[in-house]
Design brief:
seven-stranded parallel β-sheet, single chain, globular, alpha/beta, 260 residues
Length: 260
């Protein structure tokens, strides 16, 4: 299937926010509203772009795996989705750096685009979560234009799913929300970008579950103080212990030994 959409990289945009290198990975920094304004603008353009959200875990996985690093570098925007990353950006001189948190981004972009006819598609998670997510979104953003949802089996390394690709080209979403978890979603977006219709792809991980209410979300004070990891670890210790205990420790070790 031929993709006639235009593809770009972040370096081609003069309106891009500045970036701060975190262990060799450039992560864009700025206020939350600045990022939302940019994403809302991109959603209406006939260009294929991807957005990766980078907490500590994603940064550290990129450090140890060149395939992940390459996938993240191919994203048009890398957002600081973790307070330690934001704090590092502020220490490097970006005073207005804020956390660009996937679930908040999803709510804000849905609100900003709901009365503009922007077409949204949701990919990943489970059928039950997607049903609950759509119910919540339609209740909160009644004008939101949802054109499809799917829960395909995604392998790594990715392969072309012709049925999924055909569906995406049929409904031609302008915003594709992807909940495959990091770094799987980042690898998938890099692979799929040349094949996709013109759209804005955003890999938002657990945002589907949090907004749908199928998983508990940390209270705001924990999210803003850098303690969300503790809340999630307590709720899902078997799945997340390595992500937080191992990779958070490695991040702090590199930071305080000067390997920035």
């Amino acid at each position: 299937m031929m993709n006639t959409a235009q593809h770009t990289s972040y370096s081609q945009h003069s309106d891009m926010p500045p970036s701060v290198h975190v262990f060799g990975l450039p992560i864009h920094a700025g206020s939350f509203q600045t990022m939302i304004d940019l994403l809302a603008h991109w959603s209406a353009e006939s260009v294929t772009r991807s957005v990766s959200f980078c907490p500590v875990y994603t940064v550290m996985r990129a450090l140890e795996d060149p395939h992940i690093h390459r996938a993240l570098e191919s994203a048009d925007l890398r957002a600081a989705d973790g307070m330690p990353v934001v704090w590092l950006q502020r220490w490097r001189g970006i005073s207005d750096a804020e956390r660009i948190y996937g679930p908040d981004v999803m709510r804000a972009v849905c609100e900003a685009t709901q009365d503009r006819g922007i077409r949204h598609y949701f990919l990943g998670s489970t059928a039950e979560t997607l049903h609950a997510l759509e119910t919540v979104l339609r209740a909160n953003y009644p004008q939101l234009h949802i054109v499809g949802r799917s829960t395909p089996r995604i392998s790594i390394p990715p392969t072309l799913d012709e049925d999924l690709l055909h569906e995406l080209w049929e409904c031609r979403p302008q915003v594709v929300w992807i909940a495959l978890g990091s770094p799987k979603q980042d690898l998938w977006m890099e692979f799929m970008k040349p094949h996709m219709p013109a759209c804005l792809m955003l890999g938002v991980g657990a945002a589907f579950d949090f907004i749908a209410g199928t998983k508990p979300q940390a209270p705001a004070w924990m999210r803003h103080s850098g303690l969300e990891w503790l809340f999630r670890l307590i709720n899902e210790p078997r799945r997340l212990w390595r992500r937080y205990l191992v990779y958070n420790t490695r991040f702090l070790y590199r930071l305080f030994t000067g390997n920035k």
